């Protein structure tokens, strides 16, 4: 092929290639083996498409010879011109190929140069160029090695003998869509007959620049068909959408639409396919105006596409009242979920209060009262009571841990059940993503609040238990170091207890003496 011969030939000093829709221009400079090279180039020219014409200019030492066909007479002219000069003389070749459009087919000889031309042109100029050669389809016959790619109406296929182009998926409603565009959109710079589907690539090719241009062109045309007005300047676009409110999107970078190309095209395709196109367009514009991004520009992401589908289901069924009832029902369920969350927090707080009451009741009744009554203050902080306090505190901490886990588990189960019920009962009115979008933020906020309250209560409870244990253990260690009281300082109660046996002994002795005295008498 011509492109491979020129690109990979080492007999030349320099080569420049420029290719557009209408022509190919190749400039070659060399000073070696000019006879062999020019004759081989002449043979390659025979592979040009029959719908194209060419002129080959051969300049040696200021003298130029021109041929425009591959006949034997042209070959003789070239050979004669080459033989008139020394083999070492420098020569320049210029090849100009004029492309012709035949049966919606156009030639491409250097696809990389053609993609450079496309990427260097403005979007407006490139789209106008496509429109100039486009009727209902456009077939690019590429005379170099490529992987075939394209859209339903624009294809790039490697040239082969006897290749026939066919477009079985030609859009029969093209004129209707163009008419609808002109009825609903004004002040746009593109007076063309192209559709976004003409540039929507189902499968990408190997040329990155062409892939990117097709993505950008598809996005531009989709926005054109969905907006009220569009202005394109260089690499940016201004557009206006009139829905429930008007939004003006200015100085938006066209390349930024590549990430949402698929959903943007889906919105366009849904709007202009089937009946009620004007109603669909009005619905889309309303949604776009109500859901701008952080910069105030219309969003074309997957969420908007799902919202379009959901809202149109409601529109088709005419059950707006049902939709409002469902939204109100969701609001009630969300409110109930929030109330349940607060009740869980209150239940946790009440449980902690009861736990505190139980511990302090134990301390007051068992430790303080019984300890002081039986053995004095020293007995309160004995090892036995200290062990009981530590054990109860550890059990209380474990109870709090498992109870917190259980509260979160109950919350998650309750919210999952709520979501399943909503999806099951209202999937005919709202799509799943819209239901999730309505309740997920509230559930997330409620769960965060519940976790924060659990953490707050758990922290306070842990501090109280640790403080209680530390104080009790410290008191235990402190009172252990105080010596036991002596016999001289024994309490009155102890003295009375000790004196009681002595008094009984004296009484017994006196009684014995009386008996003895009585017996003597």
Give the tags:
single chain; 521 residues; alpha+beta; Dna Ligase, domain 1; 4 domains; 5-stranded antiparallel beta sheet; 4-stranded mixed beta sheet; 58% helix; 14% strand; elongated
Question: How would you explain this protein's 3D organization?
Answer:
By secondary structure, the protein is α+β, with helices and mostly antiparallel strands. The chain folds into four domains: 2-100, Dna Ligase, domain 1; 107-318, no CATH class; 321-480, no CATH class; 488-521. Helices cover 58% and strands 14% of the residues. The protein has helices at residues 2-7, 34-44, 72-83, 111-120, 123-133, 174-184, 208-226, 261-272, 277-290, 302-317, 320-374, 377-380, 383-426, 432-480, 492-520, and strands at residues 14-19, 23-30, 53-60, 63-67, 91-98, 105-108, 138-142, 149-150, 154-158, 229-233, 236-242, 246-253. The strands form three sheets. Strands 1-2-5-3-4 form a five-stranded antiparallel sheet. Strand 3 (53-60) and strand 4 form a beta hairpin. The model is unreliable at 486-500 (pLDDT under 50).
Structural class: alpha+beta
The share of residues in extended strands comes to 5-15%
Low confidence ranges = 486-500
Distance between the termini: 162 Å
| pLDDT averaged over residues | 78
Number of H- or I-type helical stretches: 15
The figure for the number of domains is 4
Summarize the topology.
Layout: H1 2-7, E1 14-19, E2 23-30, H2 34-44, E3 53-60, E4 63-67, H3 72-83, E5 91-98, E6 105-108, H4 111-120, H5 123-133, E7 138-142, E8 149-150, E9 154-158, H6 174-184, H7 208-226, E10 229-233, E11 236-242, E12 246-253, H8 261-272, H9 277-290, H10 302-317, H11 320-374, H12 377-380, H13 383-426, H14 432-480, H15 492-520
Parallel strand pairs: 6-7, 7-9
Antiparallel strand pairs: 1-2, 2-5, 3-4, 3-5, 8-9, 10-11, 11-12
Helix pairs in contact: 2-3, 7-8, 8-9, 8-10, 9-10, 11-13, 11-14, 13-14
